[in-house]
Design goal:
The complex is a heterodimer of chains A (about 110) and B (about 110). Chain A is mostly beta strands. Helix content of chain A is about 0%, strand content about 60%. In chain B, strand 4 and strand 5 form a beta hairpin. Chains A and B meet through strand 4, strand 5, strand 9 and strand 10 of A and strand 5 and strand 10 of B.
Chain lengths: ~110, ~110
Amino acid sequence: EDQVTQSPEALRLQEGESSSLNCSYTVSGLRGLFWYRQDPGKGPEFLFTLYSAGEEKEKERLKATLTKKESFLHITAPKPEDSATYLCAVQAQGGSEKLVFGKGTKLTVNP
Amino acid sequence: ETGVTQTPRHLVMGMTNKKSLKCEQHLGHNAMYWYKQSAKKPLELMFVYNFKEQTENNSVPSRFSPECPNSSHLFLHLHTLQPEDSALYLCASSHPGRQREKLFFGSGTQLSVL
């Protein structure tokens, strides 16, 4: 069974304090790994897709990396507006369009 | 604004009620999805529609009945729900091809079943 585990569950940072979020996964052949951001009262917002080990994607202060067992979302010099829940999901190879999500990491960045 | 609109934003219903959730997108997507987000649990896929045809049902109880009259609209009809069905119900849509994995979500309907 495909599984995604995110850690930590919650993370508090001071503005400017860089850190990383972890997403460990087990899947029967990875088709893609996805990162989404979810603000309170809203649906998830797409950030990145990673398809193969060694791949990296960047967007502003965020950088996502992928290995064969896990992905990291690095946050460099975060700002309060980066506060949100970050969700990781995987899609297995095959015909299903199902994304298997983790429970997320709730990030709070204090000014 | 993601281009995916869900109504109502909040819904309270009794176990014997019948209600419907509505989702609308004007992004030109041909795939639409229903997801369930419960407290302390991961997002769970419920249904997938491609070109108005249901292509996935993730073992969802029959008290949830989806309807997709066209590629822009998606409904979720609810009847005789249980308190454990209380959750945030999210609609999403996507482009065809490899971009299919990039989902555009609505803001959801927060459902409370009494």
